[in-house]
Design brief:
This protein is mostly beta strands. The protein has one domain: Sandwich (Immunoglobulin-like). Helices cover about 0% and strands about 50% of the residues. It contains no helices and eight strands. Strands 1, 4, 7 and 8 form a four-stranded mixed sheet that branches. A four-stranded antiparallel sheet has the order 3-2-5-6, with no helix packed on it.
Length: about 100
């Protein structure tokens, strides 16, 4: 949708995808989310907001972590959480739908 994700530097990862309405399949603009990565004794956080095409991307994430979790929310939709997202070096796509409240 008019966006292009390039390869991250060695040892890092990109996470990207499109968030859509579960009923209509239309992209949802303005979805806000946070990805949490637990590693050792620290937690890295990455915030994002989808564009008009429902697209989001997070660049240069850590790869070797214990847990990667995503929490997203948008007005009029149920909050969405993904637990234990597998992140590998390079590009990782995670697209999903959100349900209307």
């Amino acid at each position: 949708p008019g966006t292009r994700t390039t390869e991250p530097p060695p040892g890092l990862a990109n996470l990207y995808g499109i968030i859509t309405d579960a009923e209509t399949g239309e992209p949802i603009a303005g979805v806000q989310g946070t990805v949490y990565q637990d590693h050792d004794t620290e937690t890295e956080t990455y915030d994002f907001t989808t564009n008009f095409s429902g697209y989001y991307q997070i660049l240069d994430m850590l790869v070797e972590v214990d847990v990667t979790q995503m929490v997203v929310y948008a007005n009029g939709y149920k909050d969405h959480t993904d637990e234990d997202i597998p992140i590998v070096e390079g590009n990782n796509e995670l697209s999903f739908s959100m349900e209307v409240v």
